[in-house]
Amino acid sequence: MSTENISKIPNSLNEHWMPFTSNREFKQNPRLITDAKGVYLKDHLGRTQIDASSGLFCNPLGHGRKEIIEAITKQLEKLDYCQPFNQGFGGSFELATRISKHTPEDLNKIFYTICGSTAVETALKIAIAYHKAKGHGHKYRFVGREKGYHGMNLGGMSVGGMINNVKTFASVLMPGVLHMRHTMLPEHKFVKGQPDTGAELADDLERFCANFGGENIAACIVEPISGSVGTIIPPKGYLQRLRKICDNHGILLIFDEVITGWGRTGSAFAAQEFGVTPDIMTMAKATTNGIVPMGVVAVKDEIYDTVMNAAPEGVIEMFHGYTYSGIPVAVAAALAVQDIFEKEDIFTKAKELSPYFLDGLFSLKDLDAIANIRGYGMMGGIDIKPKDKPGKAGFQCFKACYDAGVNFKATGDTLIIAPQFVCEKKHIDEIIEKLRVGISNYAKAA
Ligand SMILES: Cc1ncc(COP(=O)(O)O)c(C=O)c1O
């Protein structure tokens, strides 16, 4: 190891309690990223890796984008912070207008949060505030879905359905939440794109309405494509069916587009890709190319108007907000990202690259260690056959792939692959080749 590389290891790894990490394993075998440029990362041993998951679905425009860095720097020099309650600055309004040009139909009102988790909490609270404003205070239940991920705050965890995330905290979850079944059926093995079967799973919501009273349900929240569990794609007709049931019972439909938003499916949002318009939509991650934390909730005009009109003039209409709601540095990054989306026609780029990426991903099917592959747009999941206890294969395989020079996120027994939209075909080839090597090495290791 060169002296330069040794110096990149901090004096002590002990004090930092790392998030979603096997802390004890990491501290024995650190993986420190020191540089990021374009589609590549470099670690503390000087090894180059290709970024196959856009960080955590965050950086579709590639790392180290000069335009964003310059915009942030300029903003910080001019106005570094202003408090966002009862005052503001021009940029956040300009950004809201630009975001609303991409959101479907009349989802034109934009509320800023800090991240995806706070976007979800905000969406849930807006749903309650809306029903209250309409005099429907009895609508308090939320419906989520098994295997759903909606962040790590208490509301999002309650509607989420990833069991390891909630086990320890079950005693403090929100009451009254119901979970629909997930949509990954045995016959969906190695299906590319939307499966043909399973739309009827949406009828779980209808059953909840029959059993608990649709008039008591405030909102149903789903990720159009479940991302964090490894790309569970909605069966054809499923989201349409959910929409219909929500309409029949006055239930708000919330799409959590923290991952699928901003082009990941090939359209601006999965809502447009699948032709289903929710009432409320969350986004985060790619909003700033992952560089500055920011969450966004887009809301139908009617919801905003209802909440506004229910409050007397001159008072705060909804008691909710964050110190970092739409702060200048995040807004500057997001505006620069909007410019790049337009200038480089990024969503079209993602749509055009998708078939090549999916073909590459599915070419790995012959590897014995692989139990299943799913993919849509620029996101895919690879299920790895566990060697011992289920739930460990993803991490073991991640480490073998990391050593082979390809970086991504793993969850349970699944590898999550979500390349940057600025990838060229040669980068996709490199990702697939290195995945093949890494997964094969995982399979060979004792
Ligand atoms: C669909 C979805 N919602 C919410 C979140 C939480 O976002 P954050 O980690 O920014 O709080 C995530 C994060 O991966 C997500 O995938």
Question: What would you note in describing this structure?
Answer:
It contains 16 helices and 15 strands. It is α/β, with parallel strands linked by helices and 446 residues long. The chain folds into 2 domains: 3-61 and 345-444, Aspartate Aminotransferase, domain 1 (Alpha-Beta Complex); 67-343, Type I PLP-dependent aspartate aminotransferase-like (Major domain) (Aspartate Aminotransferase, domain 2), CATH 3.40.640.10. Helix 4 (66-78) runs antiparallel to helix 13 (328-343), helix 9 (203-213) packs parallel to helix 10 and helix 14 runs parallel beside helix 16. The longest helix has 20 residues, at 425-444. The two termini are 27 Å apart. The mean pLDDT is 96. The structure holds pyridoxal-5'-phosphate (PLP).
Condensed summary:
The chain has 16 helices and 15 strands. The chain is α/β, with parallel strands linked by helices. The chain starts with a helix and ends with a helix.
In the CATH hierarchy, what is the superfamily of the largest domain?
Type I PLP-dependent aspartate aminotransferase-like (Major domain)
What percent of residues adopt helix (DSSP H or I)? 25-40%
N/C terminus separation: 27 Å
Query: Averaged pLDDT, please?
Result: 96
CATH class bucket of the largest domain: Alpha Beta
User: What small molecules does this complex bind?
Assistant: pyridoxal-5'-phosphate
Shape: globular
Which second-level CATH architecture of the largest domain applies?
3-Layer(aba) Sandwich
Structural class: alpha/beta
Per the CATH scheme, the topology name of the largest domain is: Aspartate Aminotransferase, domain 2
User: How many beta-strand elements?
Assistant: 15
What is the topology, as strand order, of the major beta sheet?
4-10-9-8-7-5-6
Spatial extent as radius of gyration: 22 Å
Low-confidence stretches: none
Fraction of residues in β-strands:
15-25%
